[in-house]
Amino acid sequence: MSGLRIPLEGPDGSGTDRAISLLAPNASPMTLDGTNTWVIGEPGARAVLVVDPGPEDEGHLRRVAGHLAGRRVEAILLTHGHPDHSGGAKRFAEIVGSRVRALDPRHMLGDEGLADGDVVTAGDLELRVVGTPGHSFDSLCFWLPSDKAMLTGDTVLGRGTTVIAPDGDLADYLRSLDRLRASAEIMAAEALLPGHGPVLLEPIEALDGYISHRRERLDQIRRAQQEGARTPREIVEVVYAGLAEELWPAAEMSVRAQLAYLERP
Q: Residue 5: helix, strand or coil by DSSP?
């Protein structure tokens, strides 16, 4: 890919010829460096798309609006409805005079949603919607064919692995990873643009790592159960023994999702 922007200091300002990340100031153990807000448009074009405005942080939303330099926001798109991605969407829509499109109608502003297979345009630019439920029930990815890049929201992160949230499902997530892996190969993807963390320049390697990690975790949970662990906390203490305790609640969330998966007939 000819136009990758990968600043050494972190995700802020990274991206491709047509997509640039503006980092929200909400860093945490769960959000890594913060939420990546993506501004997407053809070089020099007057219309852009904005993906995941991030939390309701006025300074961040104003910064994103300032970066537009007078360009029109054709639509604000959400990879999913979790507040670190969607919390500022309606306020940002007010600032720039646009609409919010999402799979979950609760997060829409306007009468257009998003669904797998949709094509969203801004001038000559196309962004294709890929349904990837699992992290949450409403998770979407966006394929940017001009740059051979996939925006992955929380489905694939720039560092670490994704938690299966209470509104998600591990079986769906595994299917979504398989779909992304197949798509990355068929479409010769050159980058994954995540919702948190840095750009990933080896999409197939990253997706293979995600898939194998999930299978390994399931095997570890089976072994922990065989050794006597019963509750999610007991399993976390065995399987995630090296994890900082502040992250144990998130690990328990993932364990519950994995147990539900393993208990299915």
A: strand
Q: Tell me the per-residue pLDDT of 7-57, one tens digit each, with 9 for 90 and over.
A: 444 578 899 999 999 999 999 988 999 999 999 999 999 999 999 999 999
> Do the bridges between strand 149-153 and strand 140-144 make them parallel or antiparallel, or are there none, so unpaired?
antiparallel
Identify any residues that bridge with 38 across adjacent strands, giving them in sequence order: 21, 51
Task: Look up the domain containing 85 and give its range.
Answer: 19-213
In a domain, 4, yes or no: no
Q: What pLDDT band is residue 241 in, cutting at 50, 70 and 90? A: confident
Element spanning 37, H or E: strand 36-40
Residue 218 domain-assigned?
A: no
SS3 per-residue string spanning 142-180: EEEHHHCEEEEECCCCCCCCCCCCCCCCHHHHHHHHHHH
Residue whose token pair is 């991206």:
15
CB 19 within 8 A of CB 195: no
Residue 261 resides in a domain: no
239 lies in a domain? no
Residues in Cβ contact with 35 at an 8 Å cutoff, skipping those fewer than 6 apart: 23, 24, 26, 52, 54, 55, 84, 85, 195, 196
**Can you give the pLDDT at residue 2?**
47
Q: Identify whether the C-beta of residue 26 lies closer than 8 Å to the C-beta of residue 57.
A: yes
CATH of the domain at 193: 3.60.15.10
C-alpha 74, offset from chain centre:
21
* Total domains in the fold of the chain: 1
* pTM attached to this predicted model: 0.93
